[in-house]
Amino acid sequence: MPTDKNELSERKKLILKAIIDTHINMGEPVGSKYLTRYEQLAFSSATIRNEMAELEEMGYLEQPHTSAGRIPSQLGYRFYVDQLMQQYRMSAAELGELDKLMKLKAAEVDRILDRATKLMSVLTNYTGVALKRSQSQPTIARFDVMYLSPRSFILVMLTSAGAVKTRQLHLGFDVSRETAEKLAALLNEYVAGRDMDKITLPVILEMQTRLGESEQLINPIIKAVWDTVNEPEDSELLFDGVNNLLRYPEFSNIEAVRGVLGMFDEKDELVGVMNHDADSDRTNIYIGSESPVEVMNNSSLIFRTVRNGDRIVGAIGVIGPRRMDYSKVVALVDYMSRNISKLMDSNNLIEDKEE
Amino acid sequence: MPTDKNELSERKKLILKAIIDTHINMGEPVGSKYLTRYEQLAFSSATIRNEMAELEEMGYLEQPHTSAGRIPSQLGYRFYVDQLMQQYRMSAAELGELDKLMKLKAAEVDRILDRATKLMSVLTNYTGVALKRSQSQPTIARFDVMYLSPRSFILVMLTSAGAVKTRQLHLGFDVSRETAEKLAALLNEYVAGRDMDKITLPVILEMQTRLGESEQLINPIIKAVWDTVNEPEDSELLFDGVNNLLRYPEFSNIEAVRGVLGMFDEKDELVGVMNHDADSDRTNIYIGSESPVEVMNNSSLIFRTVRNGDRIVGAIGVIGPRRMDYSKVVALVDYMSRNISKLMDSNNLIEDKEE
DNA sequence: GATTAGCACTTGAGACCTTAGAGTGCTAAA
DNA sequence: TTTAGCACTCTAAGGTCTCAAGTGCTAATC
Q1: For chain B, how many structural domains are there in total?
Q2: Which pLDDT score, from 0 to 100, does residue B355 have?
Q3: Which of A98, A329, B44, B79 has its CA 20 to 30 A from that of A354?
Q4: Is the minimum CB–CB distance between A240 and chain B shorter than 8 Å?
């Protein structure tokens, strides 16, 4: 618990940053003597020791035991992330890989996120994670009916979000091809582009009247449309590189492993967090127990929304140990989420490309 | 390495079965003295000891070290599974849960498999796993065109497998609504129900002729259909209850955990195995290193195909430690895969039910 | 001939101790 | 204010001992 805000002297900041940088690299507690090797810290180990003691008192550092060095506390990491860490410069190799991904022609969110997740885990050596968010509550922009037989047809719906949804319908009575076409026309006239709660009984009755003979058709159809629009929003969570995590010493005891792996069984919680924070258009960083997903108290989560125009189609991020390379991960997540969003935007505009 | 086939005396079988049953329950090496408590083994520990020594020589048992009891070898488990284990009788509670699942109206493979995977992990306390297999190489049974604007429309395709696929097309030239309709009619006449390799140049030329003015439309369309039919078969793998596994003592050291968890990073391999064996309509049991997925050498995999009519739509199964309760798991996997298949069959026949 | 009691032997797990090394906090000098 | 120096603390790693479990073998017994 820090006594005052921002009371850190420049020297303290320097030392704190050096400790965290070192710990992120080495994974072990950092001692005063080790720090003297940094050019910027041209003090004796004793001086550094005093500063460290104060930093610990302020809550930025912790000591696993008396005779060990210091490790950053959660607060320490938070301060580091907010004020200390430097901008990461991506390597040519990384940029290359990322750009390769961006050249994928497929505009499909699904496939891009799949690949992006894998790439994330490869580039960071942590676990890549992505959320595919299926649009909630879209309206139907356009209807079509695919006539199969007098008693069965497929209702094709283009949602306002640009996805195509279909429902297969089997009837207990015959319907002619003409009626089916008329039905599609009616749906486009009365239902397309409107919120479902605008489709009131009078509207339905009018459609029935205009459809004539097969008026009994309307009810099941409206029901099917309703179901489609109100389909529970089932976000899907993707992982890649889980085994990467297990290579870090902090996951060398079973309890810790059980912890992180808990996320597989708490997918819903994680989805909840990612969905909840998706609306804020910035990079979300959860360090240790900052995450509402209790099971992840030993790890950190960084992610950012992916958009298609205004619409949020998902999120992409990384799960790693608390001492993860925040600077690098933030840079990669930012770059990737931004560019995937851009990619999808530009795909929307393609007018002349299907060679 | 067993010297002779099936040379096991009844008494040896009894002992072997008792050892394996006990080991499956307890997870620890089984000693000769412990076995004397079984009614059926009314011999002295010395006698049993002799038999055990022979069973070990034959390759059915192993001894972790001189002063420990015996554990089943892979061969031992195999023999047990093939000849020794008894039919598992499901409990009322289990049947209840299973039947609840079967009452789901949704005919959607996806959702059923999701739920089934979770249920599997709950009922067995191992990890439930399922494969959703997207149909490979279907032909297109029916086409439809959803006209959006002169330069864009959606091609809707009903595959022979019953799935609806769509492609959004953006053109560099204008097309009239009538042309779009004519296109759909032509596709239904020339392409529907045919293998793509029957769509030769003459056929394409004839379609172009009949389409008249907008003949340039045909090529991109055929390309889109081709892409759809040849879409890489991307099977999806579902997991649930990963943390269940970590509760078993055999996964109390990191190496073992890394092993099982490798399956997350070798999804493709696992998918390969499940896809490969899916064609055989029986319950597949891989014990330890019998599995071609190298990373799973410390665990066992049991799964079985799920069908919709003749078509294989996926598989469902369980991953557990080598000493898993084979009898129970096999019974559950069988029951579940059979009933899901049946459920989907019956859903296919519904003619009059969409409330 | 098959079974069993008895016993010497082997081995891992756990408790306990010791040691080495790292890093600290504090004091006194610079 | 900084630093050298030193006593102190704690862990990790290695070593030793003991206990209990389980074995294999031999000789006696059914």
Answers
A1: 3
A2: 31
A3: A98
A4: yes
